[in-house]
Automatic annotation (TrEMBL):
Residues 108-294 form the RNA polymerase sigma factor 54 core-binding domain. The lineage of its organism: Bacteria, Pseudomonadati, Pseudomonadota, Betaproteobacteria, Neisseriales. Residues 308-463 form the RNA polymerase sigma factor 54 DNA-binding domain. This is RNA polymerase sigma-54 factor. Residues 44-57 have a biased composition (Basic and acidic residues). It comes from Chromobacterium paludis.
Length: 465
């Protein structure tokens, strides 16, 4: 066997700790970034907030020195200019100690709302306990999913509760607000809501008969069979249908069901000299800096800082990587806004086809970098709040050879359906034909796919009397 030494040259990408941190920070949402910054501030003594005064410096001087230079233009989108929140507002709220958040109502859950009503009525302790138990069994929509027999069988034997007692408690719970709460089925919930309305309401008796016995026929738009079974006219059925349409199939709508997820816009878009431009939301950028006192002390130690020198390097990396994160997001947002000018003017129907590669090639970035820069990053404009990745999507070729984005096609489909004659709604084939007349060639199954993605019912379910 012959042994030999060979030299082999190869290239290998090594992710340095600084690069790893840069990638991690870029993929975080701005809200998660704030939590990460708080963790670094607690862990690294060499980091401090940029709005804190340095040693020997007043707070006002610190604010002046840490605030980035802004062009001295008069912006018409300043919150301070739009809302007159001056000294008068603070005085009205109670001086410098006034906290405006105290005036924000705390979200109330369905459970809290029902328990508050239970506390306002005088009941024997056993009956109150039964109603309280039933409240705990309700789902987020206000329905009781378990049967009373099932509930009774799962309760401890020592309670000696049967389904009859539970039925009495449920009847009481179903009198609570919101109307329809405590129902076991959709039909029962609608019936409870109808019973709260005046009997003199047009179509009231017919609506009750429909929700009790023929709700499936109404859902299937089988109006001919409904009229035959109920012996009513078109006008009477229309009145009953209109009354049922006013009811809420989800009685607990509007109640707080858990943690509220907040979104902080990273980018704002405004019109400047006739064009839409992207601007960074400066309030979303963490104001960090390296503590200069520690930095000078470590510089004087001439490399003897040990672990503190490593912390200094870590602090410098973090400040630099956070700045780089927002620079990248702004750069990507500017490219998106420039390409989607018509969207900000006309809305979804004017959305241009755009893929990650388009922006990556324009900016000289990797597609994964563009993906991280648009996921969980939000843009605020006059049309609402949008995730940056919303502006990307597939496209279809038009008759003229141009391309039309899937978002624009969906907007066209939605617009046609919203404007259709409800007595003769458009089929998917009819919508495809109408799009073809506009030069957009799409198959019927593509229309069906987009319609279903927008959760729009099929033609037979959209038909009105």
């Amino acid at each position: 066997m012959k042994q030999a030494l060979q030299l082999k040259v190869s290239q290998q990408l090594t992710l340095t700790p600084q690069l790893q941190q840069s990638i991690k920070l870029l993929q975080l949402s701005t809200l998660d970034l704030q939590a990460e910054v708080e963790r670094f501030l607690l862990d690294n003594p060499l980091l401090e907030r940029g709005d804190e005064p340095r040693d020997g410096e007043s707070a006002s001087e610190s604010q002046d020195s840490s605030t980035p230079d802004e062009p001295a233009d008069s912006r018409d989108d300043s919150v301070g200019e739009l809302m007159d929140w001056g000294a008068g507002s603070r005085a009205q709220g109670g001086g410098d100690d006034y906290d405006p958040m105290l005036n924000v109502p705390c979200p109330v859950s369905l459970r809290e709302h029902l328990l508050a009503q239970l506390g306002e009525i005088a009941l024997p302790r056993r009956d109150e306990a039964i109603v309280r138990l039933l409240i705990e069994e309700l789902d987020d929509d206000g329905y009781l999913q378990s049967s009373l027999d099932e509930l009774a069988s799962h309760l401890p034997l020592e309670l000696l509760l049967d389904s009859d007692e539970l039925a009495v408690g449920l009847a009481l719970l179903q009198q609570f607000d919101p109307a329809g709460v405590g129902a076991r089925t959709l039909a029962e919930s609608l019936q409870l809501q109808l019973q709260r309305l005046p009997a003199a309401e047009p179509g009231h008796a017919l609506a009750l008969a429909i929700v009790r016995q023929h709700l499936a026929l109404l859902g299937g738009r089988d109006y001919a069979k409904l009229k035959k079974l109920l012996g009513c006219t078109d006008a009477e059925l229309r009145a009953a249908q209109a009354l049922i349409a006013r009811l809420n199939p989800h009685p607990a709508t509007g109640f707080h069901h858990g943690d509220v997820h907040y979104v902080i816009p990273d980018i704002s878009v405004r019109k400047l000299k006739g064009r839409w431009v992207a601007e960074l939301n400066r309030s979303a950028v963490p104001r960090l800096r390296v503590n200069q006192l520690y930095e000078r002390m470590l510089a004087d130690s001439r490399g003897q800082g040990g672990e503190m020198s490593a912390r200094l390097q870590e602090a410098r990396w973090l400040v630099k990587n956070i700045q780089q994160r927002f620079d990248t997001i702004l750069k990507v947002a500017e490219a998106i806004v420039e390409r989607q000018q018509l969207f900000f003017e006309q809305g979804e129907v004017a959305m241009r086809p755009l893929i990650l590669r388009d922006i990556a090639e324009e900016l000289g970035l990797h597609e994964s970098t563009v993906s991280r820069s648009t996921s969980q990053k939000y843009l605020l404009c006059s049309r609402g709040l949008f995730e940056l990745k919303y502006f990307f999507g597939s496209s279809l070729e038009t008759e003229s050879g141009d391309e039309c984005s899937a978002t624009a096609i969906k907007a066209h489909i939605r617009g046609m359906i919203e404007g259709e004659n409800r007595a003769k709604p458009l089929s998917d084939s009819a919508i495809a034909d109408a799009l073809a007349k506009q030069g957009i060639q799409v198959a019927r199954r593509t229309v069906a796919k987009y319609r279903e993605a927008m959760q729009i019912p099929a033609v037979n379910l959209r038909k009105a009397l």
